[in-house]
Design goal:
Elements (H helix, E strand, L loop, with lengths): L4 H4 L4 H9 L6 E7 L19 H30 L2 E5 L5 E6 L1 H8 L4 E6 L7
């Protein structure tokens, strides 16, 4: 599998090595940071005093954040799905997602302008 220069500039060396060595039908999982559209929206802020409880305020913050993320990357997520890439996690409250697909699909996904950076998904621990 060839990794174009534009894609190589967005990924770490481990992911590049994985894409170069993976079998065509092998599944590759990545963590990608998506960049908001040019007309990106930001979640409006509210003050706790506007709500009956902190829980109501928290629910409102989450609702607003989800709406802003959908506005920012919703169309990109849909394009990734149409490409055949599985969105395993993320894309709900933040612009970071875990994607899974065959190497060719992952490279095509990385070619999108809205994909800013990606790393191979790997286990880690905090010590």
């Amino acid at each position: 599998m060839d990794v174009p220069g534009r894609v190589a500039s967005k990924i770490d060396r481990d992911l590049e090595a994985k894409l170069l060595s993976a079998e065509p039908d092998e599944s590759v999982r990545i963590v990608a940071r998506l960049s908001p559209a040019a007309s990106s929206g930001r979640a409006e802020t509210s003050h706790p005093s506007e709500f009956r409880s902190r829980e109501d305020w928290r629910k409102d913050l989450i609702r607003r954040q989800r709406a802003a993320v959908q506005l920012n990357i919703g169309s990109l997520l849909e394009s990734l799905r149409r490409l055949g890439v599985t969105i395993v996690a993320g894309g709900d409250l933040s612009e970071t997602v875990v994607l899974e697909g065959h190497p060719r699909e992952i490279v095509k996904a990385l070619e999108f302008d809205g994909v800013a950076h990606a790393d191979i998904d790997r286990a880690f621990s905090l010590r």
